Amino acid sequence: MTTPLIVKLVLVSLLVFIIFNLGRALFIMVKGQHQQSMSQYLGRRVLFSVVVIVVLLVALGLGYIQPNTRPY
């Protein structure tokens, strides 16, 4: 496996985990369960969003991924 593919797989898996945590927080909010804290899942979502941004910046800086220079 090449490094750009690994970086992309890590980013996609982090994004899926972010969506999962957002869904869990929504489920707790709608269901009204007070056993678990909704902020725990929302906090994880924010944390992993920051991790995604850092991974993107590092991968761009090291040249593992290339930005699209043409907007169309």
UniProtKB/TrEMBL annotation:
Domain of life: Bacteria
Spans traversing the lipid bilayer: 6-26, 46-65
Assigned keywords, A-Z: Membrane, Transmembrane, Transmembrane helix
Family matches, as Pfam families: DUF2909 (PF11137)
Protein name, per record: DUF2909 domain-containing protein
Organism: Shewanella inventionis
